[in-house]
Write a structure and sequence with these properties.
6 helices
């Protein structure tokens, strides 16, 4: 009988799926393609690093906005993109450049991905649950 995947593995797999969907939706954003390649390579060498980058650059500041689906994340995304580049912050480009043009359904899908990633981040890092973030 196979063991269930770890929270770290589930987190990384979901993050990669999220980036794959972003790359498919926004092929003109080469930084998303590059970030996906880096994340996929890092998963093979140091999967915990991906979790730590997400925790430091997205979760710490944004998890409450994500839980509430609060668009106050947009000014943060603009600031983060213009002042600090890393593989996690590049995903915030969707809020800066595309959010207002996106269909409501696509926005819901993005919020759901981010909510799931936050819950998996909490579990993988052994943090106390913040409530019912993934509804």
């Amino acid at each position: 009988m196979a063991l269930p995947p770890s929270y770290l593995g589930a987190f990384n797999n979901n993050l990669i799926r999220f980036f794959e969907e972003l790359v498919e939706s926004y092929p003109e954003e080469k930084s998303l393609s590059y970030a996906l390649e880096v994340i996929q390579g890092t998963k093979k060498v140091n999967p915990k690093l991906i979790l730590d980058l997400f925790y430091d650059n997205v979760y710490k500041t944004c998890h409450e906005w994500i839980e509430e689906e609060n668009e106050d994340i947009i000014p943060y995304a603009k600031h983060k993109i213009s002042n600090e580049y890393n593989e996690m912050s590049v995903a915030l480009i969707i809020f800066d450049k595309y959010w207002t043009q996106m269909s409501e359904n696509n926005q819901k899908v993005i919020w759901q991905y981010l909510k799931v990633l936050c819950v998996l981040c909490e579990k993988a890092k052994g943090l106390p649950p913040k409530g019912s973030i993934a509804k």
